[in-house]
Amino acid sequence: MRIDAALGDIEAVLGERLSRSRPVREQHAQSETHLHAGPPDAVAFPRSTAEVARIAEICTAHRVPMVGWGAGTSLEGHALALKGGVTIDFAQMDRILELRPEDMIVRVQPGLTREGLNAALRDTGLFFPVDPGADASLGGMAATRASGTTAVRYGTMRDNVLGLEVVLSDGRVIRTGTAAPKSSSGYDLTALMVGSEGTLGLITELTLRLHGQPEAVSAAVCAFPDMGAAVGCVIETIQHGIPMARIEFLDAASVTACNAYAQMEMPAVPHLLIEFHGTEAGVAEQAERFGEIAAEHGSADFQWATRTEDRARLWKMRHAAYRACLALRPGAEGWVTDVCVPISRLAEAVEETQADLAASPVPGPILGHVGDGNFHAILLVDPQSAEELAEAKRLSGRMAERALRLGGTVTGEHGIGFGKLGYMEAEHGAGWAVMGAIKQALDPLGLLNPGKMVASA
Amino acid sequence: MRIDAALGDIEAVLGERLSRSRPVREQHAQSETHLHAGPPDAVAFPRSTAEVARIAEICTAHRVPMVGWGAGTSLEGHALALKGGVTIDFAQMDRILELRPEDMIVRVQPGLTREGLNAALRDTGLFFPVDPGADASLGGMAATRASGTTAVRYGTMRDNVLGLEVVLSDGRVIRTGTAAPKSSSGYDLTALMVGSEGTLGLITELTLRLHGQPEAVSAAVCAFPDMGAAVGCVIETIQHGIPMARIEFLDAASVTACNAYAQMEMPAVPHLLIEFHGTEAGVAEQAERFGEIAAEHGSADFQWATRTEDRARLWKMRHAAYRACLALRPGAEGWVTDVCVPISRLAEAVEETQADLAASPVPGPILGHVGDGNFHAILLVDPQSAEELAEAKRLSGRMAERALRLGGTVTGEHGIGFGKLGYMEAEHGAGWAVMGAIKQALDPLGLLNPGKMVASA
Ligand SMILES: Cc1cc2nc3c(=O)[nH]c(=O)nc-3n(C[C@H](O)[C@H](O)[C@H](O)COP(=O)(O)OP(=O)(O)OC[C@H]3O[C@@H](n4cnc5c(N)ncnc54)[C@H](O)[C@@H]3O)c2cc1C
Ligand SMILES: Cc1cc2nc3c(=O)[nH]c(=O)nc-3n(C[C@H](O)[C@H](O)[C@H](O)COP(=O)(O)OP(=O)(O)OC[C@H]3O[C@@H](n4cnc5c(N)ncnc54)[C@H](O)[C@@H]3O)c2cc1C
C-alpha cells in the first residue's frame, strides 16, 4: 500500500474534493451502533462515474483499499475502513438522471437518499417503496440489500433494483440489467451486486422500479393481549392472501419507549401497526377482513388512522423507534439484532428471544417487520461495560443460532458488515467458500471494503 | 477427456441408470427448434443428490463435460451436449420433498414439472404460478430463469425461487438461501444460479414460493382494431395499477393459427387475452376498469370467460399457440425469437418487427407476454432451405439489435443457450467478461455445459 502516492494522484483528479482533514475522516469512522474502527486515510467526494473509475484505477495501482460510503446508517459497521485507505463518499452524486413515468422506472446516482427520491416523485403519482426508516442512500440500500416496513408488499432492494452501473476494483465500468421489466440474458450480475456491501464493486448508478401511489391508504394500530396472539394474527392474515402494505410488530417494551419518545398513548401491550394500499373499495374490503382476523386473535383496542396526518404521525413514530429505545436508557449504545425466520417459526423465535431477554440484565425491546418473519431486539448496552458487551454478544449469538436452527437467516435486512462475519460459515457452509471464489474473481487484490463479507486471505 | 474410464466409474454408481444406448442418446440430442447438435456420450439418470455429486466428481477427475437435462423444452439449444460427455437427466428426481403450507413454500427435486407440482397442490389452496406454457421441469425453469403468462403479476423464476441445493463441478454440494422470506446475508448465490443454464452448477433441490389460489378469477378475450391500440391498452392498464394476472397479445396471424388449431372463432385481428385474480369484489372492480380502458382503445368484441371450463380452454389454446403456428406451415421448423423491451417502447418494437416480417418471405406470427414488454415472432422456416435459415437469422438478429437499441434485452425469458451466444457481448459489454470470470471461479475446468453462456476458453 503506497497511500501517499495514491492520495497525490487522486488529489490531482478531485482537488479539494479529496479530504485528509481529521474531522472529515473522523466523521467517516462513525457508526450508529456499538461497532467502531479507526478512520480512513482520506475521504473522496467524486461527482461522476469517470471520477470513481479513476479513483479505482489509482487505488489498484497503489494497492490501496476503497470503501464506499452512502449515508453511513448501516448497522454492522459496513462502511468502516478496517484497513484504512480511501473512503468514497457518494454524497455529491445524488442526482436523478432520468425519470420514465411510462415505464415506471427511474435512473439515479447512488448518493440520492430514498426521502430525496420520494420528494422529487411526489407529483408524479409514483413512489419508491423500499423504506428502511433511516434516510439511507439508494446506493447504500442496494449494497446492503435493504428492506423495511413495506417489503411485505413491495419487496426488498433485490426486487426493486432493475439495473446498475458498477465500477470494478480495477476501474472497469460495467452495466448490469436493462430497462426492460425482465431478462433471461446471462448471469444475474444485478442481484450479485445487490447485497455485496461494496466488496465486489462501487455502484455509480441505479435503475429502480417505481410503483403507483396507492389511490387509497388505510392504517391501523391494534393492541393484542400477548405476542403469540399478534403473531398468530399476522400468520392468518398472510394465509388469507390479504395484501398488507405494512405489518409491524412492537412488543410491550417498544410500545413504552414509543409512548415516551413520540407522545403516544398506546396501552403497554404488544401491538401491530398495519397499513393497506389499494383502491377505495379494495382497502375497505381488506381492512374489514383484517379486522375480523385481529378480533379472533383477541385484539380489543383497534384504531384506524384514516387521515393522512395521523398516518404520517404513526410511521414517524415507527421510524423513530430505534431512537426511542435508545432513550429508554440514556448513555446506552444500541446493539441491533436482525434475524429472519419462516413465518411458521416466528412466534417460537420471538418467544425464545423474550425468555432469554427476561433472564438477562441487558434490556432489549423487540420490534420487527413481522410480515417477513423479520424482527430486531435493540439491546441497550453500556459501552463502558465489558460484561454488558459480552452479554449482548451472547444474546445476539443465541438469536442468530436460533434463526438458523429454525431455517432462517442471521440477517433479514441489515447485512453482514463486520459485526456478523462470524456467522457466515454457520449460515452458508461450503457456499461461503464460493462467495470467496467470486470475490477473488472480481477483486483479486482484495481492495474493495477489505475485512468484510468473505474470509480474509 | 477420458470418457470410457468416466463412464465405467459412473456405471459402478448408477448401474443401468447410465445409458449408452443410441435411442436414449439421440433423444437427448433433440431440441424443439432449428438448433441441432450431436448426442452426448451417455445419459445418466440419478436419483439423489449424492449420486449427482459422485457423477460430478468422476467427470471432473476424467475431464468429461456434464450437461443437465430437465424436460428438454428449452428453445436455444440449451441442453445439447455440444462437446459430448454425460447428459444428466433429472427425470427420476421428481419428488416433492417437503410442503409447508403455513410458510407457503415447497421443497422439490429438479425433475418435477410445473404441472406435476400444481396437480399435487390442487387441494391445498396454493399454487406455483410460473407458467412457461410447456410442461417444463422446475430445475430447467430455474436454470433458464423462465417466466411466462403470469409473470406480470407473480414474477419470474428469479422472484419465486427462494433457495437451492446445487452440486458444483467438483462435486461439492452447497445450499443457497433459506426458508425465511428474505435475507441480507452474503452474495445472492440463489440469483446467480437462477438463469445460469447449468454452467455454474447442477440444481438438485429447489425451495419455491407458493401463492394462494385466487378466490375469484375472471378472464377475457378482447379484439382490437390494430396492434397499436392493443399495446396502448396494455400500457394504460399498467399505469392505472390494475393488477393483471395475465395479459397476452396475439397478432392477426397468431389468431388465425389458433382458430385453425384449437377450433376457436376469433375475428382475424389483434387480440389481448387477459385474466384477473383476487376476491370477488376485487376482480369485478378490476374487470370493469379494464373494460373501460379497452373500450377507449377501440376494443369492440369483448368476451368474458367466467366459467372454469371456458378459461381452461382459453389458456390451453394460448399454450398450444406455438404448435398452432407450426401447423400454419407443415414441415416447417420454428425459429422462436424472444425480445423484451421497456413497455413504453413496446409498440415501436412490435411495429418495426411487423414491417420487417411483411417484407420477408419467411412467415412469423407474433405473440407475447406484453405486460412484461416481452414478445416472440415464431419464424416458420423450411429446415432444408439455406436461404430461409439465413433470412430467419437476419430477422432475429434485427429483432435483437432493435431490442438493445430500445433499452431492452435479447431474451426476455428463453435464455441464451447457444442460439444467442453471439449477442452476449453486444448486450453486456464488459459485463460479459465478468460473467466469464465468475464461470472460471466456479467451474475452472469448464466442464459444466461447455460452449454456453460465456466466451469459450
Ligand atoms: C434508525 C435506523 C433504522 C434502520 N432501519 C432499517 C430497516 O428497517 N431496514 C433496513 O434494511 N435497514 C435499516 N437500517 C440500516 C440502514 O439504514 C441500511 O443498512 C441502509 O441500507 C444503509 O444505507 P447507507 O446509505 O446509510 O449506507 P452506508 O452505511 O453508508 O453503507 C452501507 C454499505 O454499503 C456500501 N456502500 C454504500 N454506498 C455504496 C455504493 N455506492 N457502492 C457500493 N457500495 C456502497 C458501504 O461500503 C457499506 O458496506 C436502519 C438504520 C437506522 C440507523
Ligand atoms: C411450446 C413452448 C412454449 C414455451 N413458452 C415459454 C414461456 O412462455 N416462457 C419461458 O420462459 N419459456 C418458454 N418455453 C421454453 C422452455 O419451456 C423453458 O426454457 C423451460 O424453462 C425449460 O425447462 P426444461 O425443463 O425443459 O429445461 P431443459 O430444456 O431440459 O434445459 C434447459 C437448460 O437448463 C439446464 N438444466 C436443466 N435442468 C437442470 C438442473 N437440474 N440443474 C442445472 N441445469 C439444469 C440445461 O442444461 C439447459 O441448459 C417454451 C417452450 C415450448 C416448447
Automatic annotation (TrEMBL), chains A, B:
Cofactor(s) of this protein: FAD
Molecular function (Gene Ontology), one example: D-lactate dehydrogenase (NAD+) activity
PROSITE patterns per the UniProt record, alphabetical: FAD_PCMH (PS51387)
GO BP annotations, alphabetical order: lactate catabolic process
Composition bias, Basic and acidic residues: 19-35
Top-level enzyme category: oxidoreductase
Domain FAD-binding PCMH-type positions: 36-213
Recorded family membership: Belongs to the FAD-binding oxidoreductase/transferase type 4 family.
Protein name per the record: D-lactate dehydrogenase (cytochrome)
Species this chain originates from: Cereibacter sphaeroides (strain ATCC 17023 / DSM 158 / JCM 6121 / CCUG 31486 / LMG 2827 / NBRC 12203 / NCIMB 8253 / ATH 2.4.1.)
